Amino acid sequence: MTRLTLRFLAAATLAWSAAPLAALHAQRPERPERPERPERPERPERNDRGGEDVTKVDTSFAFGPGGTVDLTQISGNVTVTVSRGREARVFATTEYGYLRTEFSSTRISIEVRSRRNRMGESEFRLQVPAGTKVIARSVSGDVTVTGMKAAVEARSVSGSILVDDAADRITLETVSGDVVASGLVGPVRAQSVSGDVKLLGITGDVDAESVSGEISLRDAKSGNVRAESVSGSIEYRGTIDKAGRYEFKSHSGDVDMAIPDGVGASFTVSTFSGTVDSQIPMTLQPSDEMRSGGRRSKSMEFSVGGGGARVTVRTFSGDITIEKAGARPAKRSKE
Amino acid sequence: MTTTMTCAQVDTQLAEWLEGTLAAPAAHAVRVHVAGCSRCSAALTALDVPLGDAAALPELQPAHDLWAGIEERIATPVVALAARPAAPLVVRRRFGWVAQTAAAVALVTVSTGTTWMYASRVLSKTTNEIAALSRDEIRTQTRESIRSTIRGTLRGEARAVSTEGSLPSIEHTYDLEVGALRDILLQRRAELDPATVAVLDRNLRLIDRAIAESREALARNPANQVIGDQLAVTLDKKLQLLRTAALLPPRA
After folding, report:
1. pLDDT tens digits along A270-299
2. Which is it for strands A197-203 and A107-113: parallel, antiparallel or unpaired?
3. Is A176 within 8 Å of B97 when comparing Cβ atoms?
4. What ipTM was assigned to the predicted interfaces of this complex?
5. Which of B187, B153, B186, B155 is CA-nearest to residue B172?
6. Chain B residues touching residue A157 (CB < 8 angstroms)
7. Of the candidates A207, A212, A251, which has its C-beta nearest B234's C-beta?
């Protein structure tokens, strides 16, 4: 507001003084014409964060590991990859909007904003040292972050989230895109509404949710896992920690889990109208079997390896399959 | 020595400042910045946060007085909850993605009935305990609190169906909250991408169908814990989706 006011005052002053100056100029003898100066590039404006507002950035500068990258994109992709050494390379552009930037040796912040309600397409491409924390958001673009070995917070609305090699706290959220991530160390929270959530190679706690998308957790080494969906299927292939807690719940999606040999765990497996197939012997609890509208709901509890971990698998109408890791999938037979 | 903070730095430290857990020099720097920055002070005003050191606020007694205030604002019946021990009030808020969603954040935060459950859960802890919690942990605890309450209500509902035929107030509260969030989504439809709105609608219908199936099954099997638990999860899922939708950033 202040800047606009200053601009207005400057323009008004110039307009007011233009006429007398023109008259004065007309009275002076003509000077020989000077050669035209090359046009100066537009000087970026300083913003209130000490950064600059521009439409394009293409630069590199010293940037240490342990810094933070904070990117806010609207319509376009965000890509962050690893740079060599202690250097950051930043390329960002916007079609009609402007970029609000802030660069230092420990922090990179780029936010795209509209100009006269126009923004168009934008693109952010960054290379930063491994160990940089990345916070990246886009409304309609994909967010890709690879090789950071540090905390990653990636969100999109209609774009997909693609992350590889992240550590510490990892948050991956989208609405209609997929979440595909691998090489994750640390607590992971992954969420989509209609897209799939596919995580491969996870060490640490996992919290995965979807409504209609599939959830697939493979090569997991996690002590605490929670996966929930409404109609999407759920797959878990990974270790079962003796002191761990594992919950897989879906309304109509199938749940498929593979258990490694030598696991000590207590299972509670329940479904209202789905089927349960298991390669592990289990005992049906008669007290929990109830007749309902011609269908039987099933609730089973069993332990393997002397118990230990708590494993809960529950569906309303989805089928449940529990198999031994490495074994051929159990043949499903509807009851 | 006081260092000058930028808006971005304030954004990252705001939650801790509001909680009073920020170190004194940093807290001072935030306070100085907010006092002189129209953007940050406007954002805080939008969130209805007093411009001062939150840590200096007097301790409030949550108990049922808090619920009464919320109840008045959303015109919903009081949910019978056990009295909680007095504990210091800690305001945990989150700076929105963009300023435009600040109003939606405030609306969701204030108008939702489950805020009480969240608050009662959080307020029963000491400041240090809360400081030790991460946002995800709080989210998990909130979810568990909501589900536990819904499960309890469903069991009560199942028993009440045959005797009184009336729904407990928590059910009504839930419906009100869902209605309020749906209204927000309705108001925001024009600023969201139509494809995203279609995805949200499709998935909300999916959840509604799942809820209807579970309710029907529960009516036939009032004591079936599997159905009751699954219904609680699905009801919670609907709430989560509506909240997510209400806080989505607008399209370009």
Report:
1. 999 999 988 887 765 544 444 433 445 678
2. unpaired
3. no
4. 0.77
5. B153
6. 193, 196, 248-249, 251
7. A251
